[in-house]
Design brief:
With about 425 residues, the protein is α/β, with parallel strands linked by helices. It folds into two domains: about 90 residues, no CATH class; about 300 residues, 3-Layer(aba) Sandwich (Rossmann fold), CATH 3.40.50.1820. It contains 13 helices and eight strands. The chain has an eight-stranded mixed sheet, with helices on both faces. β7, α11 and β8 form a beta-alpha-beta unit. α1 packs across α5, α2 crosses α3 and α4 runs parallel beside α9.
Length: about 425
Amino acid sequence: MTRASGVNRSTSKAEAVEVTKQEQGSWLIWLASPPIIIFILSLLYFILLGNSTSMPDPPPDTSFLILPWAAIAYLQSKNRQYQEWTYRQALLNTIIKVGLHKYISLKRTPSISLKPGFERKRFVLIAPAEPELYSGIALDEKTKPEPVGGTWFPKRPSLDSTLPKDQHVVLHLHGGSYISGNGRTATCGFIAKNFLSYTPTQYVLCLQYRLTGSLNGRFPAQLQDAISAYTYLIRTLHIPASQIILSGDSAGANLALGLLRYIKQFNNILLLPAPKCTWLFSPWTNIPGAMDEEAWNNSPNYKTDCVPASFTARGAALFLQNLEITKAVEEHVAPIKHPFALPSPILVVTGGKEVLYQEHREFAQIFKALPQNESLVDFFVSETTPHDVFMIGWIMGFRKEARECAEKAGEFVKRLGKSHKC
């Protein structure tokens, strides 16, 4: 892959407007109706309270009834999940938690489209890689490699451009408990803009991997799609692996780590070389563990996290159903139990107010404890944020914190220099 001279790193005006319109559309979907509904419900709720002068006990935090209570209670910072949060951050945290819980109750079958749609020329359809690149855990009698979609940011690179040696291409894998989300602008526009603005990144490819519970979405479908996309960058676009960064948030971080493990086990640097490094944002490191909703609800950070136990439990149940948990499978679904010698460095980023915070710290320590990994693991905590700051940052008002995480990721890459070039 090459980069034409004079091409600016930032998005063009037209591309920026396109991304902004999509983000604004998503913002309206999230926020246009809820404030009106909450306001009306709040009035009704407190009219029914009559002459009561004190705040009643809150309803269950995944019930719609919590919304009018929160709309009034959070006017005082002492009633918020975390007193340093703004009113908006506290209220949106509750709205998201209720929304995710209700979304799960619908039990909708995930679906994704392979048509360009809004993304137009930025959308790419990636064909499966050569058969010899799928082996071991990536082989399955029922689940086969299929074409997979992806969205480029800020634009789709041409085949006749050059990539400066100090710049990189990020292959990002989105979160969503393996049951929601995609790689398109509505899901990944915010994180892509942060990468392009605050890290040495020229292009970002966000993959639209198959979701569990959908047709042909059974594991290892997601790993197969990740292999296809990574191979596309190396073999079709001829991007050096030393200029590719793997990235993932939440479930996508689990998948990114799974791909890194697969590359290590494939053990052929000519066919499948390791990337420059891997960014893991709020990684899902123990999928079977998410089935225990009681443990999630009893976490000291449950109140400050925006993810309800039902959401991760639903994703885990669908991902693990009809799946025999052999050692090879458990390495991918519960990587915290199976550290391995890393082929290139990883950065683990967590939120100080998320349920998985302690698990992320333990995960980083376990991997770093291996002698081969001592200098290959870095860990950063965004102290005031809940789960997956890049997914909720623009919604809840954590843009500053998201930028800080992106800057840390950029500094991590720059520190590597040529010391871990593959």
